[in-house]
């Protein structure tokens, strides 16, 4: 089947009016979403590799996939390695896609791509690099993987347009009307005639609406155009539900509904109207992450002799939603308490089941965790596909157990890595805890403790306001680097408010985030170092943290040592939101210094003080006893 799909695509490449020497298949949708719907899962269908990141390149005689270190092990398990070559993009000697194409294709070759699913930000440097080697980059308006699927009688599914819901201000803290008013003020400053919003989470945030078109991401397929006088939503067939229109009216927004599939011709028509209006120059503002097709349409590049000027840069909505308001932040704090309650109940249940000799599979554990989360107020569903990695599966960084075939039982000899999260109306959670189901080895205890030291180092750090996240990454790795260990993923990502669990433009990684505006109070990030011994076990500790202002009188554990405030820039630190204890049995106290031990005991005391009364009040006394035991202060012998 894999060979048939590859052969069909190559035949289509050869049959184009201008024959293609290569074709690029990214993991992408028309909105540059990280997680995609089934209709857009083209790279997965073509290659068999189901990881959430990667780009395939197919030539007449080669087929390659570029992906990062999170997915190397998964790729080799899922893909026919006789057909596909893994390009490990985290390694310094792996050439980029443009370098590989320039080195392996002859001058005069043509590389095809779908302009609807590649952003201008990605297309421009690729085009420039290929041009130097006399290679043409050609937009193919009809996606060739979709055509191949139809030819093989396995057509892609329809694009979903599920119901959308309104999120009131007791959750959002700001009306849609106020958000649009602020965006229009920024448009006036930029002298923009229109703001085109293409990222699905940005549209949901702006309008205080949520959907379910992409699994785990409460977004809906749409485009939003804001002008000084109008708000146009391209959604489904263009008919906005009466309940949504009423809610929008109450928030001070009158929406004009337009069909989703008509966005390109309508934008082209808008460009023509602005060009012919006779009232001066007109600039269009849109994100550099918008697709090449939307850029061309917005500027009228295919219909105007003199296209409009495009301001293609980081979206103002991305920067607006990055910093949470007081209502959103309190929602994050509260949903983490409820989420922590569910996760604590789950781990108590899991240890009891395994200790009693009951067989529990990874999928059964996942289902039980979902059951506990469903007990909590305002729970809307998981925030991503749970990673329940037992033993060797924990070393697959983005592991997902197959629902078919033999199931992996969680054994009493296993290190068990559980990475999971919840979507709540008042916030989004993402937590990883690693626990041993029996007696950990000395090697596992050492690795577990070193990963924990890294998490504490980052979680307790003080840093100047405005510093970029990549500056902090080394703090989380040092204890591993000291003994020659590391992990092949970033250390922290932003998180949306009842939105995408991965949110830009800030993060913490060894690679700089290209649009990181600098860290500010009110942002949410993850803190998640790890260690993975392929074929044996994985360890990851993940908390969500909020960025806070710190001064000498703050409760931050390092505040009392402050001597200054970085020459007036201001001091920032983290406050941990996640409320689940670490597995004390896996910690080597001799590897912790006094500060780290005090920090950990303080964290556990806080978890018990917050969750304990809730468990008691709900009559969950056995869960309370388990938690109290897990949170007992650790003492050196």
Automatic annotation (TrEMBL):
Q: Which cofactor does it need?
A: Mn(2+)
Q: Which GO terms describe its cellular component?
A: cytoplasm
Q: Enumerate the spans annotated as Creatinase N-terminal domain.
A: 5-133
**GO MF, one example:** metalloaminopeptidase activity
The Peptidase M24 C-terminal domain extends over 571-633
Keywords for this protein: Hydrolase, Manganese, Metal-binding
Look up keyword Manganese and say if it applies. Answer: yes
- What Pfam families does this protein map onto? Creatinase_N, Creatinase_N_2, Peptidase_M24, Peptidase_M24_C
Keyword Manganese on entry = yes
Question: Could you tell me which InterPro entries the record lists for this protein?
Answer: Creatin/AminoP/Spt16_N (IPR029149), Creatinase/aminopeptidase-like (IPR036005), Creatinase_N (IPR000587), Pept_M24 (IPR000994), Pept_M24B (IPR033740), Peptidase_M24_C (IPR032416), X-Pro_aminopeptidase_P (IPR050422)
Show where the Peptidase M24 domain sits: 331-547
Q: Which family does it belong to?
A: Belongs to the peptidase M24B family.
| Protein name in the entry | Aminopeptidase P N-terminal domain-containing protein
Organism of this sequence: Pieris brassicae (White butterfly)
């Amino acid at each position: 089947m894999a060979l048939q799909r590859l052969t069909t695509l190559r035949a289509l490449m050869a049959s184009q009016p201008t024959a293609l020497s290569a074709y690029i298949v990214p993991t992408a949708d028309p909105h540059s979403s990280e997680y995609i719907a089934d209709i857009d899962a083209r790279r997965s269908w073509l290659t068999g590799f189901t990881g959430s990141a990667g780009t395939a390149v197919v030539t007449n005689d080669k087929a390659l996939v570029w992906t990062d270190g999170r997915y190397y092990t998964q790729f080799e398990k899922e893909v026919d390695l006789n057909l596909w070559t893994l390009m490990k993009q985290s390694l310094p000697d792996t050439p980029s896609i443009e370098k590989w194409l320039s080195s392996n294709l002859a001058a005069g070759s043509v590389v095809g791509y779908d302009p609807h699913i590649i952003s201008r930000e990605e297309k421009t440097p690729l085009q420039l690099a290929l041009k130097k080697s006399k290679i043409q980059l050609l937009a193919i308006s009809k996606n060739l993987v979709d055509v191949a699927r139809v030819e093989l009688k396995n057509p892609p599914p329809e694009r979903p347009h599920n119901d959308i819901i309104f999120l009131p201000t007791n959750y959002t803290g700001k009306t849609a009307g106020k958000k649009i008013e602020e965006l229009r003020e920024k448009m006036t400053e930029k002298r923009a005639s229109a703001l085109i919003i293409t990222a699905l989470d940005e549209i949901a945030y702006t309008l205080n609406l949520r959907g379910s078109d992409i699994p785990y991401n409460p977004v809906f397929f749409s485009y939003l155009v804001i002008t000084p006088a109008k708000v146009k939503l391209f959604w489904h067939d263009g008919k906005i539900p009466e309940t949504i229109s009423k809610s929008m009216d109450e928030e001070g927004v009158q929406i004009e509904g337009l069909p989703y599939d008509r966005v390109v011709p309508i934008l082209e028509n808008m460009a023509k109207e602005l060009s012919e209006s006779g009232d001066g120059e007109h600039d269009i503002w849109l994100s550099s992450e918008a697709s090449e097709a939307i850029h061309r349409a917005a500027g009228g590049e295919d219909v105007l002799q003199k296209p409009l000027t495009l301001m293609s840069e980081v979206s103002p909505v991305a920067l607006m939603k990055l910093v949470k308001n007081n209502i959103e932040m309190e929602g994050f704090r509260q949903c983490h308490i409820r989420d922590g309650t569910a996760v604590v109940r789950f781990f108590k249940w899991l240890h009891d089941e395994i200790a009693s000799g009951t067989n529990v599979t990874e999928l059964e554990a996942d289902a039980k965790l979902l059951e506990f989360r469903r007990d909590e107020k305002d729970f809307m569903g998981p925030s991503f596909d749970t990673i329940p990695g037992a033993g060797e599966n924990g070393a697959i960084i983005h592991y997902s157990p197959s629902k078919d075939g033999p199931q992996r039982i969680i054994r009493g000899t296993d290190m068990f890595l559980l990475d999971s999260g919840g979507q709540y109306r008042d916030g989004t959670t993402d937590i990883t805890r690693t626990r041993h189901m029996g007696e950990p080895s000395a090697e596992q205890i050492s690795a577990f403790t070193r990963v924990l030291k890294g998490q504490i180092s980052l979680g307790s750090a003080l840093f100047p306001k405005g510093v970029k996240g990549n500056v902090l990454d080394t703090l989380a790795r040092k204890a591993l680097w000291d003994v020659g260990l590391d992990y092949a993923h970033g250390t922290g990502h932003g998180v949306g408010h009842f939105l995408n669990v991965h949110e830009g433009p800030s993060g913490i990684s060894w690679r700089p985030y290209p649009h990181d505006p600098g860290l500010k109070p009110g942002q949410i990030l993850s803190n998640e170092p790890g260690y993975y011994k392929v074929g044996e076990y994985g360890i990851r500790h993940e908390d969500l943290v909020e960025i806070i202002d710190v001064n000498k009188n703050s409760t931050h554990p390092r505040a009392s040592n402050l001597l200054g405030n970085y020459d007036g820039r201001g001091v920032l630190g983290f406050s941990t939101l996640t409320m689940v204890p670490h597995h004390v049995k896996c910690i080597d106290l001799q590897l912790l210094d006094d500060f780290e031990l005090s920090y950990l005991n303080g964290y556990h005391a806080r978890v018990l003080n917050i969750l304990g009364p809730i468990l008691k009040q709900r009559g969950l006394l056995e869960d309370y006893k388990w938690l109290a035991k897990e949170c007992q202060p650790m003492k050196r012998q």
